[in-house]
């Protein structure tokens, strides 16, 4: 019980309040920005991966007249936002690492080796099992033929380009986002190294402004709907939003203005997104207007979230950091990469055997079966990721 208004507070009261609202752990502010650990950023990863897993796993559901199922579909349909969160966070973290490493003798060597060691072992191990071992131990002739024909888009990290034009492998179509990030990792260190500070900021601004026009042009040219969603040139704004934020938080001259800009951008983007959702009656990833305009609005909001997670903990930032630093979110954030890799192959296999049963009937029973299925995909993905972390990634 809390003391009455005006009553004396004891040390026990303070200890209890601390337990209810634990302080957000932070690295010393004297450390280089990229060397500090921001627990809330781990929470952003956790939020993003949960959104994506639920979004992709819900594809098993077929049309229904049930209100509960329609509501579930409407909610999970927004889960693609998690990919945009990943892109913004990647742009922020990678740019920060590169900027802080400028001037070091091993600038390129250290960056590329660390990225290779973090990403390649799991990625190529999964491709080896799927494309080399599975066709020899399982009877999957149709899938195997497609995999043999299209697998090189995956080995070369170009699946976002191949998949857009029909060269995808079922169960691995989600690898398009890993291809986007890898292409970013290859090119961005060179640009950061070659450009001066103002040039980097200007390039990020140009990418933010022009990317919606690129997506519009892709639609007007009649390219497949995936083009404005999966091609690297159509996702530059999210990566640039994170990169620009990384540059600005390191610029002492704009710190006071950056806080004001963030509040304004957050409010404006949220209002514009709300109007877009009302006009389009949802936030579906393949909707042309959502792709052209909505992806940029989500990028701005994602950058705002990242900013509040890494800035000094006061006011709104402190509240955001307390929420995003929750242990359960950070837990999923730790395993987010492997969860992303594994969840869709698991979904592809299980949906093949369970789709008819899950969509039988209607109403509450079907809703409960779907909830159990979504929980099962999330649990299996998490378990696979934990095993992967212990025997391979760690």
Q: How many H/I helices?
A: 17
How much is the radius of gyration in Å?
22 Å
Average pLDDT level: 89
Following the backbone from N to C, one meets helices and strands in this order, namely: HHHHHHHHHHHHHHHHH
Are there runs of 5+ residues with pLDDT below 50, and where?
1-21
Q: What oligomeric state is this?
A: single chain
Helix/strand/pairing category = mainly alpha
Question: Can you walk me through this structure?
Answer:
Helices cover 74% and strands 0% of the residues. It has helices at residues 11-20, 39-57, 67-76, 81-101, 107-137, 141-155, 159-164, 176-194, 197-220, 227-230, 236-248, 255-280, 288-310, 316-324, 327-334, 336-358, 364-393. The radius of gyration is 22 Å and the shape is globular.
Write the layout of secondary structure elements.
Elements: H1 11-20, H2 39-57, H3 67-76, H4 81-101, H5 107-137, H6 141-155, H7 159-164, H8 176-194, H9 197-220, H10 227-230, H11 236-248, H12 255-280, H13 288-310, H14 316-324, H15 327-334, H16 336-358, H17 364-393
Helix pairs in contact: 2-4, 2-13, 2-14, 2-15, 2-16, 2-17, 4-8, 4-11, 4-13, 5-6, 5-8, 9-11, 9-13, 11-13, 12-13, 13-14, 16-17
């Amino acid at each position: 019980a809390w003391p009455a208004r005006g009553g004396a507070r004891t040390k026990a009261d303070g200890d209890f309040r601390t337990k209810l609202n634990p302080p957000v752990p932070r690295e010393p502010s004297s450390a280089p920005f990229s060397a500090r650990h921001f627990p809330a950023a781990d929470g952003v990863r956790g939020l993003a991966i949960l959104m994506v897993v639920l979004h992709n796993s819900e594809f098993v559901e077929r049309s229904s007249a049930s209100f509960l199922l329609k509501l579930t579909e409407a909610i999970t349909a927004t889960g693609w936002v998690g990919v945009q969160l990943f892109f913004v966070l990647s742009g922020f973290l990678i740019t920060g690492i590169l900027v802080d490493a400028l001037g070091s003798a091993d600038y390129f060597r250290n960056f590329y080796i660390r990225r290779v060691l973090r990403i390649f072992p799991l990625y190529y191990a999964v491709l080896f099992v799927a494309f080399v071992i599975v066709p020899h131990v399982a009877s999957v002739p149709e899938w195997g033929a497609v995999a043999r024909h299209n697998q090189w888009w995956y080995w070369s990290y170009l699946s976002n380009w191949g998949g857009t034009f029909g060269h995808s492998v079922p169960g691995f179509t989600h690898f398009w986002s890993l291809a986007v990030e890898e292409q970013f990792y290859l090119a961005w260190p060179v640009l950061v190294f070659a450009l001066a500070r103002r040039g980097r900021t200007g390039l990020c601004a140009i990418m933010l402004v022009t990317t919606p026009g690129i997506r519009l042009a892709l639609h007007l040219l009649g390219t497949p709907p995936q083009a404005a969603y999966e091609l690297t040139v159509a996702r530059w704004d999210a990566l640039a939003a994170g990169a620009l934020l990384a540059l600005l938080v390191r610029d002492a001259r704009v710190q006071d203005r950056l806080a004001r800009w963030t509040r304004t951008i957050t409010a404006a983007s949220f209002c514009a997104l709300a109007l877009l959702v009302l006009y389009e009656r949802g936030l579906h990833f393949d909707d042309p207007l959502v792709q052209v305009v909505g992806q940029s609005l989500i990028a701005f909001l994602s950058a705002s979230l990242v900013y509040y997670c890494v800035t000094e903990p006061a006011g709104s930032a402190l509240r955001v950091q307390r929420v995003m630093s929750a242990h359960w979110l950070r837990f999923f954030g730790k395993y987010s990469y492997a969860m992303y890799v594994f969840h869709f192959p698991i979904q592809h296999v299980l949906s093949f055997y369970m789709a008819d049963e899950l969509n039988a009937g209607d109403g509450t029973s079907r809703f409960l079966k779907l909830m159990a299925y979504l929980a099962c995909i999330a649990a299996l993905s998490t378990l696979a990721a934990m095993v992967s972390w212990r025997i391979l990634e760690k």
